[in-house]
Amino acid sequence: MARPGWLTRFAVLMAVSEVVLIVAGTRTAYPVLLVWVPAVAGLAAAVTAFRGAAVRTGGDLRAFWRRVAVAMGFVLLAGISQTIDVVTLPWSGMPPIGARTLCLYVAGTVLAITALLRLPGGGRTWRQLLTAVLDVAVVAVTGGIATSQYIGWFMNRFGVSESAWWLNIAMIAIAVAGAVVVVKIMTARRSPIPRASLWWLAPIGLAGPLSTLLMTALRPWPHLNGSAAVLPFVGLFGVLAAHAQHRRLAAGGGSPWIAPPSAGRRGSAVPLVATGLVSLLVAIVFLRTGHLTTVQVAGTTMLLLLVVARQAIALAENNSLLDTVARQAMQDELTGLFSRRYFTAAVASTTGPHTVVLIDLKEFRAINDGLGPAAGDALLTAYAERLTALAGRHAVVARLGGDEFGLLLTAAPDTVDRLLASGAEPLSAAGHELLVEVSIGVTDGDTGDAADSYRRAELALREAMAGAGGRVVRYDATLERQLSRRATVAADLRRGLAAGEFHLLYQPIVNLPDGRLVGVESLVRWGDVSPAGFIPVAEDTGLIVELGAWILDTACAQAAEWRRRHGPDALRSVAVNVSARQLLDPALPEIVAAALARHGLPAQQLTIEITETAVFGGGRALASVTALSELGVNIALDDFGTGHSSLGLLRTCPVDAIKVDKSFVDGLGGSPQQEAIAIALTGIAETMGLRTVAEGVETAEQAQRLYELGYRQAQGFHFARPLPADAIDEMLAAQQNRVAA
Ligand code: C2E
Ligand code: CA
Ligand code: CA
């Protein structure tokens, strides 16, 4: 704090010296240059102090102090220029002041006002800034008109020329404007600059008019000068303002600047007060003198024009703010599409035939987690653009939140088809080419049921999302029944699980061509409800996690039991189906490891069957599979060839076996085209060193053909149906006897 200390003392010294010089000057004469020394030195001190404040602060504050330093620099130049004027220009009753000097003063004042106006106001729009500038202009003109009357009298009395008279009006106007800006900022609730600094800066605005008064008052002593008398105080007040800033910094910076929400509205009194004052003044002058001067008429006109402009701009600003508020309620910020609120209202109030389409991006969560939120945002934006392009002009396109979109169509019935077709094309987002699968819920409605359309489309969407792949579900009355039936099944399922109503069957997997039993696949049963009927419900409700743990434990217990009874190599492995939902459970590898340990089953005697679709998205599911594989458990890809069928998956996912789907087995013995896939799959499996199991073998001919094509393992009703554990026991015992015989 040493620097502001000596600067302050220096500035005080300059101001005191000036006072001494002026007082002494009324008694004795001395060189005209002398009074300018403290003036110029005081101003230089202020420039230094402002620059010091700029160096120590940051951000908006630094910009402010740098700007006032420049403004003060201009005043300093003006002081020097005026010193030169006093020596070089001719005198005419008053110390001369040149155009250059006046320009420099005006420039300094304007810069200072600008610096104050540019103080952070919470992201002011150009309209708000313009309104503030016009406020200042209004005040300046009002000040000019109000003082012209008085100054006119004052100047006439001292015999000052007409041009100097005009300049003085301008000076006073600008000075008043400057003071008003300072006061305006001071009356704001909070300010980035310390209040004390503002208190010191405010009176500087009065330097102009004060020097004019002093200049005329000091006329009897030609070596004295009004400007020179005032300038050291300008310097001193500047130094004190900077000092207050330093003290604030030393005290810990103070509270942060929060733009007061009402700051913009406070200014609206300015045009009212200004027009009121000027009207009053003009009325008084006219009543007293019977006429108005050019200045008064011109000034009043200018004032009215300024006020009109100011009010028009402020009104436009208000309207645009109102628009923004209304738009924000209606619009989604990220994509620019309509908001959910707008969409539901639009659907409910639509008339005539319409279609509501709700869309959910399936793998959005995985993409967002895997590639980061920036990529997620880019994907949503890209998808929003695609939707807008597809939907056409007559549709309402909305983002309903998260990864859900909505379309309200009143024409173009083929939009849904085009939407599906477009799903096959990748979207580019943040440098990634992404294939997004979507679930779509659709409902058609007419005027009468518009109020219900959104809810129906939502039901259809939930149903579409429940399925594994991306799909479209159209609402109809059966859907509603289906859904309520599903709710009943879910409740029943929960009860059945608690009551131990489930059991497992085991379907043999046999060797080709001899039909020897090499493994089994466990298949869950619940009374007469087929797994296809309750597994999806269990997945939807999350119950599959609990049910799946029970299945794993039961199958491991059974496998360990067979091992004990029939020897360690009686069965190569027992397969257990694990659904996509289970793979998303991070605890799955632990659950499997615990089941193996509990029953003492070696990991390689357990096979986990997963579908391609479940691991296609990568992420959590793929991580689970990798962890399972690391335990030593076999991984088999179920229903191979029907899902995503990405051969790349065979490289990224640690697969030991593929189960060729029944549909390809069904095609055997037909045309070469029908056999092509079954043939290709053995080839691929062989080159990749994978075991192949042909599923759903129902005839001897199929078994024979599979053997010819190179398949060595098969499963199907031709060999055996899913059987209770005892039946497998019998088969294993018979097999042992055959080997022994
Ligand atoms: P999947 O994994 O493809 O199971 C094979 C299905 O095909 C079984 O039906 C089986 O009985 C049937 N199948 C076997 N051989 C033949 C044949 O020669 N002809 C015909 N037409 N069908 C045959 P199931 O038991 O009804 O199971 C259906 C699906 O339910 C399974 O398909 C599987 O995705 C699921 N699932 C069954 N049990 C479980 C389980 O314990 N956990 C999980 N997560 N899913 C299971
Ligand atoms: Ca299976
Ligand atoms: Ca299968």
From TrEMBL:
Domain of life of the native organism: Bacteria
Keyword field contains Transcription regulation: no
Domain EAL, first and last residues per copy: 486-736
Keyword Transmembrane helix: yes
TM regions (residue ranges): 7-24, 30-50, 70-91, 97-117, 129-153, 165-186, 198-218, 269-287, 293-313
Molecular function GO labels: cyclic-guanylate-specific phosphodiesterase activity
Stretches assigned to the GGDEF domain: 352-477
Pfam families from the UniProt entry: EAL, GGDEF
Keywords for this protein: Membrane, Transmembrane, Transmembrane helix
Protein name: Diguanylate cyclase (GGDEF)-like protein
Organism: Actinoplanes campanulatus
